[in-house]
Amino acid sequence: MIDVIWDQAHHTPCSLAVSLANDCRSATIFQDCRPLALQDCHPLWQPPRRPTPPTQSLRPHGMLRTLPLDDEFQVAFVPSYSQIAVLNREASQLLERLPLRAGDSIEEQEAIKQLFALGLLNDGNNAIPVPEAPQVLVAWLQLTNACNLRCGYCYIQKSGESMSVATAQNAVDAVIRTALQHGYPVIALKYAGGEASLRMDLVEQTHRYAQAQAARYELGLQAGLLSNGTTLTPRRLDRIASLGLRLMISLDGMAADNDRNRPTIGGGSSSGTVIAGIERALVAGITPDIAITVTSASVDGLPDLLAWLLNRNLPFSISFYREHSGGGTTHNLRADEQKLITGMRRAYAVIARHPPRWSLTSTLLDRADLSRAHRRTCAVGENYLVIDHHGQVAKCQMTLDQPISHIRAANPLDVIRLDQIGMRNLAVEEKEGCCTCDWRYWCAGGCAIATYRASGSYDARSPNCTIYQSLYPDVIRLEGLRLLHWHLPHDLIDDITRM
Ligand code: SF4
Ligand code: SF4
User: 33 C-alpha vs ligand 1 centroid, how far in Å?
Assistant: First the structure.
């Protein structure tokens, strides 16, 4: 029997009532900054919009790659383009002996059509299409600069200042005006700080206003709250739930691995409080998305953290923090890279033993998203407004101190798109070394700020490129094992994950 296994159910964290997967945290840093965080509640992969050619004309895509899972199964994919699928031996043999011949069975013809729909076959055109532009306008609202933690990688200048209600409503108006001018059907708002939950009154007023205005102008609205997890009282969680907000909580490890990066304002431990906050969120009916920032020093603790999260069916995303100050020797940087690669593989092994129902291909490796093709790593410079507590507009939350527009402007997004002086988030085709890379539309070349800090230019490949290229096959193999896990009897899959 020919068996082709792929993510038919589109089990996303969203479909399982969890979310904020696929945000865009930056490599060096920085918690909770994925501009796409709130826009990804749609199927993991859009099939190519093209009619099926005659099956006899179909051949394996020129860039088709396979990775063995065991003697019976292999995972197949076309980097930057296809859906990831698992093929059994019969399906693999069919692939090898294409084209179909007259008289081949109905089963074989149906399998070929499916492989074509997944993007694994074509009729001779091996070009990888340029991905479509995003359909969601994303906005970061810096509601407060106050925070009770002092994370080492935080970029916010702490103060007691918050956005006024009037500014917050004007910010929502600016986002809606911009969306209408640019034809975006959906807006996504991220309520951020500081610690935004310290100002739940402001979150609530702003979100109620956004709901009313989005309905008035017939725009889709997605929204979430970014939290450090230490202030989530039952009352605040009830308000988050009643507002229908998604919740993202940052946690870097189960104990010291978190506390080194994320101490309290007095230098104490925060991990226990965050873990209690996560447990309370679950009791309140909220499934938070856990944002993990990994360093070469903390990566050894990642397996324990993932085991804890997987036990609770909690979605998570993993980003890198690495210094690229230029102070390290080449030897040290390589050792750092190697430690991260080895540590990430140990963490992936934990996932292979307990894979979740939803795909992790957009959340396992920094800002890479192997679930769909995209030209830019994040929304910066294209469909993103970062609004500070005074209503000033910047390109990225990392550059809040360099605003280039204001919510009073007729079209702040135009100002951002036309700016040639500040940071530039180039499309991957414009980055040297990336433009010909097979992974380009799944990777997009990494965080622009991390690249600039490492190389002094925006048109270079990511400083994490070696790590990405080493681990992409691991992520794909892991996805293959996950697909098998939910497809095969579990005693069989146990044998495979031990291999
Ligand atoms: S440039 Fe993009 S990936 Fe980098 S910190 Fe800003 S939003 Fe995140
Ligand atoms: S950063 Fe590296 S892996 Fe990513 S697109 Fe560029 S060359 Fe490819």
Answer: 6
Distance CA 152, CA 169 (A): 32
pLDDT for res 39: 35
Q: What are phi and psi of 198, to 5 degrees?
A: -65, -20
Q: Give the lowest-confidence range in 209-213, 218-222, 256-260.
A: 256-260
**Edge-to-edge, what's the strand order for the sheet holding 4-5?**
4-5, 85-87, 74-77, 65-68
Q: 419 forms bridges with which residues in the sheet?
A: none
> Model's pTM, two decimal places?
0.90
Strands (E) located in 268-329 = 289-294, 316-320
Ligand 2 binding residues, C-beta < 6 A? 428, 433-434, 437, 439-440, 443, 445-446, 461-462, 465, 468-469
**What pLDDT is attached to residue 103?**
81
Evaluate whether 434 touches 445 at the Cβ level (below 8 Å): yes
- Ligand 1 atom closest to Cα of 29? 5
CA–centroid distance, residue 377 to ligand 1 (Å): 8
Domain ranges of the chain: 4-129
- Alpha helices in 137-223, H assignment, sequence order: 165-182, 200-216
pLDDT higher than threshold 90 for residue 276: yes
Q: What is the mean pLDDT of residues 180-193?
A: 97
Strand 65-68 and strand 316-320: pairing? Answer: unpaired
Query: Where is mean pLDDT largest: 20-24, 326-330, 337-341?
Result: 337-341
Among 146, 144, 150, 153, CA closest to 32: 153
Report phi then psi at 76, rounded to 5.
Answer: -125, 145
Among 25, 31, 33, residue to substitute to test ligand 1 (most atoms within 8 Å of Cβ)? 33
* CA pair distance 374, 165, nearest whole angstrom: 35
